[in-house]
Amino acid sequence: MPEPMTGPQQQDLPGGAEASAAEYVLGLLPEAELRAFETQLARDPDLQQDVATWREYFVALTDPITEETPRAEIFRLIEARLYGAAKPAPRGLWRQLMPYVLGAVAAAAIAWAAMVSGLLTIGEPEPHLYADLVAGEQGLQLLAHYAPDSGTFMVRRDAGDYPADRSLEVWLLSDAEQAPVSIGLVDREGLTEIPLASEIAVQLAGATIALSEEPAGGSPTGLPTGPVIALGQLAPRG
Hints:
Blueprint: H1 16-26, H2 31-43, H3 45-60, H4 72-83, H5 91-103, H6 105-116, E1 129-135, E2 140-147, E3 152-159, E4 166-173, E5 181-185, E6 192-195, H7 198-201, E7 208-215, E8 228-233
Antiparallel strand pairs: 1-2, 2-3, 3-6, 4-5, 4-7, 7-8
Helix pairs in contact: 1-3
């Protein structure tokens, strides 16, 4: 059972059944694992206590936030995320990326809570988001930057050579229930600038992005086909 938690600064997820309890509360368990977990939950008092503890902890993240009515478009985006048809990601790909995604779960939960609770209101400027994408073996160093005032996602290549006869593609990894979403291709020369639709932009705060090496012109399948060579988490910088 998780140790008592006294504040949102405690963000590291444990392993085993406790991690499953946290993922259950956040709605991150795949359907098959969800059924097995709920079967065990019905007969395991310790697991029920784990779930109750995690639920209280995540609810407490919103305690410092003043209650306000969310903007209408936020409800539409949430409904689209909950009920819209989503193509599941390949199991093998998520096994490769899951250690990075789980590391960002708590940060993403805080960002989501702030958004639906009205913390990011129309009258307040949204923060710019940044992520370093470093591919050590290839010698590539890139900086990803989302500018909310213009709705533009940018990538600047600071070091390394663009691979010959290949393309570099950036992907959004919002959670384990949805397939990676292509943000776009990195330009071979100069600054990459990609206008983002609002339904993509609203998912960026705290999310993980991946850089994959693809055939020239980008992935032919709509999912990463080449190696994922770099990962980064989008967050504000002081």
